């Protein structure tokens, strides 16, 4: 549903007030960061709505997909955290939930007693495939920008991530 014709963009209004208060140099950055955070919330909600009927979160989906892309369908837990760029506690939480639902299983590493291997089950592979179909159809193929806009956004986000040392 489109906003009413007299709707005010709260971020544009905040930017105007930043300028009004003399924070002219910071106003564009404030508007950009606030817009980025709002966009992230919008996208997260779309992903959540798409995955909810499958009983999975995006964090768990990412673990399943990472495992499905691996040659053996298994990886050490520490490598999962590194590849997904998340804290080990988040990986443990996601794997706990996936294991409880029989989508993955844990086993000790053959050579390193301190390490744990996480392996995708057949049910986990099926869920990953189904979730990917849903996300491709309902979210990824319709991101809210045209193809040119997506490429521009990717370039800008790549610059931001690179400057932050994300890779």
TrEMBL record:
GO biological process, one term: response to stress
Any Pfam family hit: MarR_2
Ranges of residues in domain HTH marR-type: 29-162
Coiled-coil residue windows: none
The keyword DNA-binding appears for this protein: yes
GO MF entry, a single one: DNA binding
Gene3D superfamilies noted in UniProt: Winged helix-like DNA-binding domain superfamily/Winged helix DNA-binding domain
Keyword terms: DNA-binding, Transcription, Transcription regulation
The protein, known as: Putative transcriptional regulator
Native organism: Nostocoides jenkinsii Ben 74
């Amino acid at each position: 549903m489109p906003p009413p014709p007299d709707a005010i963009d709260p971020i544009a209004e905040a930017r105007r007030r930043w300028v009004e208060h003399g924070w002219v140099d910071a106003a564009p950055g404030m508007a950009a960061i606030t817009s980025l955070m709002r966009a992230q919330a919008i996208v997260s909600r779309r992903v959540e709505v798409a995955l909810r009927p499958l009983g999975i979160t995006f964090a768990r989906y990412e673990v399943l997909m990472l495992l499905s892309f691996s040659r053996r369908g298994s990886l050490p837990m520490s490598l999962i955290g590194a590849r997904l760029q998340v804290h080990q506690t988040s990986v443990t939480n996601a794997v706990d939930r996936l294991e409880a639902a029989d989508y993955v299983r844990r086993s000790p590493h053959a050579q390193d007693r301190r390490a744990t291997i996480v392996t995708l089950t057949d049910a986990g592979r099926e869920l990953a495939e189904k979730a990917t179909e849903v996300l491709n159809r309902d979210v990824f193929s319709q991101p809210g920008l045209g193809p040119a806009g997506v490429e521009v956004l990717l370039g800008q986000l790549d610059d931001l991530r690179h400057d932050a040392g994300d890779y």
